[in-house]
Structures are given as structure tokens and as C-alpha cells.
Amino acid sequence: MDLMQFNGFSFRFNLQDEFIKVESFPQDSIAVAPSCSVISNTPTNHSSSSRRKRSFGHSFVKDPQMIAEELARKRAKNNAAAKRYRQRRIMKIESLEKQVTELTIENNELKTRLIMLEEKNLGRDNRIKMLESQLNEAHQEFLNSS
To answer: If residue 91 lies in a helix (H) or strand (E), which one and from where to where?
Structure first.
């Protein structure tokens, strides 16, 4: 029998039987091992409290080909998720770049409009000053003639 470590798992295996016996593993790995068969199912922690915490010492026998297939499936799923994420990120960046371009164009248009309105306003201010001056002159002439 040989001992192999892989991703936090310790595997003890016998090459003649072509099976791997899992000796120690994280508690969550029980739910992700549907292709395993249980050898023993003995509770290792007994508590007398009303709320029991049970830790089962499961030992699984798993075919090495099943392990490889499961790893390949998980890698393929992760690769697909990473590809979707990269595509979403690229689309988001393109959308933001388009928005920057549109807002830059709008900003330039507004700046041009502002300059035109300021010039128009300046022209009106000059016209008002001229009319006020004419009014003052007309008022003075009226006062002098009466």
C-alpha cells in the first residue's frame, strides 16, 4: 500500500485492487463524493446535550478513474465560469468606454453651447447699456426742454 497527498486529501491505495481508500478528508467532501461507497459509518463523537454534534468517520472507496473524471468535470466547469466572467468583464469595459466617448461628445457640445450663449449674453448686455445710455440722454433732453 502507498500513501498519496492531493488537495488536502490523504489517499491510501493498493495498485492491485485499483481502488483508492480515503483515510482523511474535509467534512464538506462527503457531499461532493456521489461515486463513493461507504465502508463504515460509525459516529466518533457522542454528546449527551440536547443538541448533538455528530462527526462521522466515513471511509470511502473510490475508483481512480472516477476521481480523474470528477476533477476534469470541475476544471471544465471552472474554465467555463472563468470564460463567462472574462466575457462579462470585457463587455462591461466596452460599455464604459462607449459611455466615456458619448459623455465626452456631450460635454464638448455643452461647452460650445455655453460659449455661444455667453457671447449672446454679452451682446445683449452691450445692447442694454446702449439703450440705457440713450434713455438717459432722452431724459436729460426732456428735463432741459421743460
So the answer is: helix 64-145
DSSP type of residue 12: E
Same domain, 116 and 71: yes
pLDDT tens digits, 4-18: 556 656 555 555 555
As a whole number of angstroms, the distance between CA 54 and CA 135 comes to: 100
Element (DSSP H or E) covering residue 104: helix 64-145
Based on the fold, state whether residues 36 and 92 are members of the same structural domain.
Answer: no
3 φ, ψ (degrees, to nearest 5)? -115, 130
User: pTM for this one?
Assistant: 0.45
Asked if residue 33 and residue 84 are part of one domain, the reply reads no
**How many other β-carbons are positioned within 10 Å of the β-carbon of residue 115?**
10
> How many whole angstroms separate alpha carbon 88 and alpha carbon 80?
12
